């Protein structure tokens, strides 16, 4: 059985606990590796290694740091198939979707190549007679990323790329469910010429996370995961004086106006609701058509498309999506579907009926995999748990609204505020929607509005805690601190001490 170790100082580190956890293949339900789990002492050792490496990395000029990141990008592309295959087999998303996971991470590394520009300060001359003021952006020191299972390449790279480019050392605590790709990415960073210790990876659960949160050496924590843990980490970081940006769960709505192209909208919804088995924080899980006619037409279009989706092994090129990540995740989705039925929602397509007992891929049985077929509910209401909770599975809920105002109230009033979309051909209505909607990322005829790397990514309300977003210019602000210098070079002797507040004139 393969063991996935921590990665510290450029090499594998088995840790001292002897504790491990199985890493599964969700497509077959079989164990494929064991990942080691750190305790507090292991984490402290990793942080100490990072602290030792950081000053030298920060002293390197930014052009040199980004040349290493440039080579890292080249190596990631050169190893793309291996990375995507490993990611797919541990997560369960399809191979092509896994490539997308890596590539959206690389986008942010490319953005981080602009670090010399992002780190430039500001300069004002003659703010007083013979006095200049300027500001510098300096790295924080050692920073950490705690990342979720659902994007095991993209989110570590979103965090590590800008942090490293800015001169920090980065401790990554990835999800213990799919830990291989984060380690492989760190190995490739060393191969690209990075000094050992600048990017370390440590595996573990709550104990490891708490050790990061308690460390005086760690100056900032970038977290992505579920809302209760996001809130916990945000509060703990406030207690210990660390910067934190903590992104949480989601319930993303699509509003469909009567003038929308129904067939194209149904296609967009099917991809965005069921892609990656719905295990995306930007998955569209609620659709709100305006008016009975729109809802009926949309229901008909969805019913024509959903049952023909192909669910299969993650490496099956015919599969539209693969399994959920664990049996627990699948059972939770099944439970919520049951609650929807009990609450009186209209279960139009029931994914629990998917039968994989006789299915095989390349000679392997899929009977033990964690599959759930695409599920579609109509007549969902705002009190039902299938509406209030993030399901994180292949379940689309339709909530019918009479008016645009009522439709907009659903995403506006929901506890989450990550993404939202509107489908319409009416520019004026879309513009009003964009202006007034209480959600962080908005799509206009775009179902999954994940912003490009040079803009920023972040949800509102219970989807995000902290004031700065991920990637884009915010990422450099988050991972640097500003020093402001006021200087004068007098060419005559001073008139003696001054006891009043200096005023620039
Ligand atoms: P999770 O909250 O279970 O785990 C996230 C990280 O926290 C992991 O590294 C995990 O090891 C750690 N962790 C788990 N339990 C902990 C505890 N009790 N104390 C301290 N640390 C703990 O999330 P997940 O299941 O890996 O990921 C799915 C969630 O992430 C969904 O809610 C999804 O919406 C969210 N997500 C949000 C975004 C975003 O940008 N808003 C992006 C991707 C995923």
From TrEMBL:
- Cite a single GO BP annotation: thymine catabolic process
Which keywords annotate this record? NAD, Oxidoreductase
Q: Name one Pfam family in it.
A: Aldedh
Q: What is its EC number?
A: 1.2.1.27
User: Any idea which GO molecular function terms this record carries?
Assistant: methylmalonate-semialdehyde dehydrogenase (acylating, NAD) activity
- Domain Aldehyde dehydrogenase intervals: 17-485
* Enzyme superclass (EC): oxidoreductase
Q: Which PANTHER family match?
A: MALONATE-SEMIALDEHYDE DEHYDROGENASE
Q: What is this protein called?
A: methylmalonate-semialdehyde dehydrogenase (CoA acylating)
- Species source reads Corynebacterium lizhenjunii
